[in-house]
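Need tokens for this chain, all 164 residues.
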Amino acid sequence: MKSLFLIRHGKAGSRSEYARDAERPLTEEGAHEAALCGRGLAKIAAIDVMFTSPLIRARQTAELFAQGFTPQPTISVIDELAPVNSPARLLKIVNAAGAESVALVGHEPDMSSLTSWLLTGQGIVAVEFKKAMVCRIDFEGEAAAGEGTLAWLIPAKVMRTTGK
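Here are the structure tokens for all 164 residues:
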């Protein structure tokens, strides 16, 4: 693999409105922004495969991002992107995909922790992932802890503008 794209889900409904956190969908604004960000990302990158958390807001974000691409990347839902999971198990799945570019759609603080772990092998870099933010980390070969190089980190505002 060459590039790994980390994407945080878009704006979701209020926690107080849903019995379970996993059921919170994107808001209308969050869906609109995710679609624009997906079109923006498609203008500057190619995605072969996309993995997403099983939580509805992440799945919706993945679907909206994927719609910006031609051809659309394959989307797979994996439990390893649900909150508080093992990054080592996640990397096994990512590397097994055998793709040149893989996108991961997940949650905070997991996206920040994963970014730090991929860049340093530890959790020592403070990265704050805002909603619908995209990060690209490049690897010489397979993705591995401490082996990534940060190519870019683009806030959703910039990505939305690019997608217009």
